[in-house]
């Protein structure tokens, strides 16, 4: 991880503030971004919160500190604004596990089934889907769909979690997030042994066995709200380590431990203060979606936003 000394940090902050003014920009950052990146953002949140914020901000340019599918979702919802991704090669390994052609081939086997896609997917996959969901609203989205058979892409673990909360039949595409999937039950057991008074909170992208051992399965925004409202003082966290910054900032009196040290998404960490400033200065990494795909993808995102 790059460390930034205080002088350098202040210099970068000033530069980014000037660029923000000249671009009439808003900076949004995902909860998994580096602490110093979260600190210069106007809004920090999960995919759903950032998708909503991007539709209501008064800005010409959206500077997205996250990974490609997130900036693409902002571009789908804001064709009149310029969307810049703060690191051009920041992608999502899970989103890359399914293409539109693969989805179409899978769909042919189950005519009549409704496609629900996790927002962690490409614009092309969203365009082939009926509705999107996030980890925060997946259960409600699935409940809103007419029809009892659902093809869920690409995350098998989130799909499994949703399937335990509904009577509908979910067929799960075998995608996964490596950051969450590699958290193992024995690591949860060990963390509990080390911190017997702590509550275990995991993301529903974790394996079903890990979710079953947790006290709660929550999206990142739900985790932040849960901890803020809880009278407990210690928490074991099973999601990407970037969330610790927000948790500690909002709850300085509470203690947080990761289930394991490997909860790091390398693509989320590609954005630094330097890449934010460079992206804005050079107006580079503009994310666009071809209009025909954008319109179909937007239908799926709009349906989700209408649910919750
Ligand atoms: S944490 Fe997982 S789902 Fe999120 S961007 Fe990284 S690889 Fe994708």
Fold and architecture overview:
The protein has 15 helices and 12 strands. The protein is of the alpha/beta class and 308 residues long. The chain has 3 domains: 6-91 and 268-282, NadA-like (Rossmann fold), CATH 3.40.50.10800; 95-177 and 291-307, Rossmann fold, CATH 3.40.50; 179-258, NadA-like (Rossmann fold, 3-Layer(aba) Sandwich), CATH 3.40.50.10800. The protein has a 4-stranded parallel β-sheet with strand order 2-1-3-4, with helices on both faces. A 4-stranded parallel β-sheet has the order 6-5-7-8. Strands 10-9-11-12 form a 4-stranded parallel β-sheet, sandwiched between helices. It is globular. The structure holds iron/sulfur cluster. The site of iron/sulfur cluster (SF4) has 12 residues, from loops.
Compact description:
It contains 15 helices and twelve strands. It is of the alpha/beta class and 308 residues long.
SS-derived structural category? alpha/beta
End-to-end separation: 36 Å
Number of strands: 12
Strand order of the largest sheet: 2-1-3-4
Helix proportion: 40-55%
Domain count: the total is: 3
So what's the CATH class of the largest domain? Answer: Alpha Beta
Q: Could you spell the SSE succession in H and E letters?
A: HEHEHEHEHEHEHEHEHHEHEHEHEHH
Total number of helical segments?
15
Compute the gyration radius: what is it? 19 Å
Quaternary state of this entry equals single chain
The kinds of small molecule bound in this structure are: iron/sulfur cluster
For the biggest sheet, the summary is: 4 strands, parallel
Low-confidence stretches: none
Specify the CATH homologous superfamily of the largest domain: NadA-like
What's the shape?
Answer: globular
Q: Which CATH architecture of the largest domain? A: 3-Layer(aba) Sandwich
- Proportion in β-strands: 15-25%
